[in-house]
User: What shape does this take?
Amino acid sequence: MKFKHEVIEGNILVIRLSGDLIGEDNGASILELASDYINNKVRYCIVDISQVRYINSSGIGVLITILTKFRNKGGEVYLINPSENVKKLLIITKLNAIFNVADSEEAAINGLLNS
Assistant: This one.
């Protein structure tokens, strides 16, 4: 799995994931990245999972940990543009009831800024 990140709107961390999210070594790197930005007062996060083909239980753990870290600091997380397979996984695991899911980055930004 690969990931890139940037901060937009001054306080929204955008993490773009590609490949398989299976909680390998990159999982710890992503969580460390999220913690660093939270410590620097970033309160919102958008995780672009449009290029993620597969997520296993460790990958789900990474997403839940990101969500928990941001919510514990009064923030929020959006997942954007999941593939059909990932959408099904979110429904089966009932994570679609826990995560905010948007079809586009613009919709997620609007959701975050208007919450």
Notes: The chain is about 45% helix and 30% strand.
